[in-house]
Write a structure and sequence with these properties.
The structure holds two protein chains of two kinds. Chain A is mainly alpha-helical. Helices cover about 65% and strands about 5% of the residues of chain A. Chain B has one domain: F1FO ATP Synthase. In chain B, about 90% of the residues lie in helices and about 0% in strands. The chains are: A mainly alpha, B mainly alpha. Chains A and B meet through helix 7 and helix 8 of A and helix 3 and helix 4 of B. Chain B: This is ATP synthase subunit c.
């Protein structure tokens, strides 16, 4: 396989690479020490009103979520006009969307639900994939300090992946959970939906409820554990090797490979949860 | 260091190690079985290797879920509590 790059691509890649090298030389020259402080810690901001866990936010999750949404919208506006002979971006998007559409079409039996489920699944897939992949490139992150403040680290850690925050994953899984029941009521009618909790006999009602609640929990914890565990493993192993070559391989494995697979699995499970309730 | 604090750290480290070590047994067995079956299928039908490999990786990623749970528990013991 031969990869051909245009002139502007080469200039862009060269600029990024030169920027990374320059920051690395600057860090080494000023005696920057890689250290393990703040592993697994999050920068948490306490809102001025209210008390308790409900009035705290993770500012970095909010910021990176908006960054990724802006990226997706930017790409969407750039390839709005679909041509018969596709360009580079368009064919990439078409391959991804076609794959998700085939998955939905294979597992959903009712034709009128294929399109809405595809919209949900494709949005989830794009968002999770992009946020997993962004967590595998060195970038800007923020770690908390003792005094309640925060310290911004540039290029000594990866970009902050929003999916490494359980709140984000629980939101996505809860959205899938609610949407699956909405689709179920729409497809089967309210009576038959309520009856499905008492199958095969009425004493099974608690089991069915617990089984439904366990779905979003396992759905969100799987993604959270993979992404957060991968990030912490990269930090610890990279620290042992003093950030010498090893992190590149680890970023490739944990970020790109596991990130893409986990995004795909999150999407497949979302489709399976929705389609199992509408049949 | 007080004796109580030391005991707490002892419990934390032993607990995290046990959680991760015992929790890795199940996914190990499961992924081994998936790999063995995939190898058998590949040997029987070498023309299906592409499809089988993707399916195998997907099944591996689902089978390692319980291991990931124990990793989360271990990190929570070490870092959060």
């Amino acid at each position: 396989m031969k990869i051909s790059l245009t002139r502007s691509d080469k200039i862009f890649l060269g600029t990024v690479f030169a920027g990374y090298i320059a920051v690395m030389v600057y860090m080494l020259a000023t005696g920057y020490k890689f250290q393990l402080e703040g592993v697994g810690q999050r920068w948490i901001y306490q809102l001025p009103f209210g008390e308790g866990p409900m009035s705290r936010i993770n500012p970095l999750t909010v910021i990176m979520t908006w960054v990724i949404m802006a990226l997706i919208i930017f790409v969407a506006t750039r390839v709005k006009v679909f041509k018969i002979i596709p360009g580079k971006k368009q064919s990439l998007l078409e391959v991804a969307m076609e794959y998700v559409y085939d998955l939905v079409e294979d597992s959903v039996n009712k034709k009128e639900f294929v399109r809405p489920i595809f919209n949900i699944a494709a949005s989830i897939f794009l968002f999770v994939l992009l946020s997993n992949i962004i967590g595998s490139f060195p970038g800007i992150n923020a770690i908390p300090t003792d005094g309640g403040g925060f310290k911004i680290t540039i290029l000594s850690d990866t970009w902050y992946a929003p999916t490494s925050d359980l709140n984000m994953n629980l939101m996505l899984a809860g959205f899938v959970f609610v949407m699956s029941h909405v689709f179920s009521i729409k497809a089967k009618g309210f009576k038959s939906w309520a009856k499905s909790f008492f199958e095969p006999a009425w004493p099974m009602f608690p089991m069915n409820v617990i089984g439904e609640i366990a779905k979003p929990v396992s759905h969100s914890l799987r993604l959270f554990g993979n992404i957060m565990g991968g990030g912490i493993l990269i930090l610890i192993i990279g620290y042992l090797a003093k950030y010498f070559i090893v992190p590149v391989a680890l970023w490739g494995i944990f970020g790109l490979f596991f990130g893409a697979i986990q995004a795909l699995i999150f999407t497949i499970l979302a489709i399976a949860y929705i389609s199992s309730l509408i049949d | 260091m007080e004796i109580g604090e030391g005991l707490m750290m002892l419990g934390k480290y032993i607990g995290a190690g046990l959680a991760m070590g015992i929790g890795a047994i199940g996914p190990g067995i499961g992924e081994g079985r998936i790999g063995a079956s995939a190898m058998e299928a590949m040997a029987r039908q070498p023309e299906m290797i592409g499809t089988l490999t993707t399916r195998m990786i997907l099944a591996d990623a689902i089978a390692e879920t319980t291991g990931i749970y124990s990793l989360v528990i271990a990190f929570m013991i070490l870092l959060v509590v």
